[in-house]
Amino acid sequence: MPRSIRDVALVVVLLGLCLALIFSYGKKSEIGAAEAVVYRVFRPLEQGVSGVKNKLASLWNNYVYLVGVQQENRALKEELSRLRREKAELAAREAENIRVRKLLDIKTRLEHPSVVAQIIGEDASGWFRTFFIDKGTDDGVFAGMPVTATEGLVGRISRSAANMAQVVLITDSALAVDCRVARTRDRGVLRGALEGGCALRYLSPRAQAQEGDEVITSGLDGVFPSGLPIGRIHAIRMGEQGLFLEALVTPSVDFAALDQVLVILSTRGGFDVQSWTEERP
């Protein structure tokens, strides 16, 4: 018989004797001399086996516990991620609701009918400062109509199709807006500036405009209603010909953050200039 098999058999026999002694010890009130000797010999072995058994049981219980904790942590992380997504969605909806409420508030205060439009795209070429909205001729939106936002004037409809339209921004040099400085009533023509923002040109050399003054539409061009915010002056300089002053204006509207605008539904020919030049009480 191989040695390894004999060793295993011997261990099994010794363990059997040990267990027999342990069980017989519980049934007898006294232990014989031979049994006592055997018990003393195998007691350390029995204690070792019992200790290993207890450690294995403890390790198994710890493993089961850790598996449970990992599953619980995974579930908690998934729940946390879901709650964060829901919070972000709610915040986005709340911000959108606030923007819509502000647009509707402007809509109710305007003297002219208007329609809220969603921005659906930008000019891909990058040569022109324009974007596209989801309203068109089917909604009463035609070329030449003013476009505004909660912060101020955005631009003007340049082209319109059945269900979409193109808007040219006030920062485009091709668009001209008749404006005033709100504080001093100095009048000029606003166009997009090559260095960014806008330039209020043809101001009188005697103009009292200063940095920080607000610029608004005058309503005298027959295109844009009066009083729409444009932006604030951040610099004043002499014009190229040296005949007029020129004010550099930072627009009130953050065009990069826009997603909704308000189209003012004027008549096809623009606003009646006469109605804006009449004296009002």
Automatic annotation (TrEMBL):
Gene3D superfamilies: Rod shape-determining protein MreC, domain 1, Rod shape-determining protein MreC, domain 2. Pfam families: MreC. GO terms for biological process: regulation of cell shape. Residues 66-96 form a coiled coil. InterPro entries: Cell/Rod_1, Cell/Rod_MreC_2, MreC, MreC_beta-barrel_core. Residues 119-264 form the Rod shape-determining protein MreC beta-barrel core domain. Signal peptide: none annotated. It comes from the Bacteria. GO terms for cellular component: plasma membrane. Keywords: Cell shape, Coiled coil. Involved in formation and maintenance of cell shape. Belongs to the MreC family. This is Cell shape-determining protein MreC. It comes from Desulfomonile tiedjei. The lineage of its organism: Bacteria, Pseudomonadati, Thermodesulfobacteriota, Desulfomonilia, Desulfomonilales.
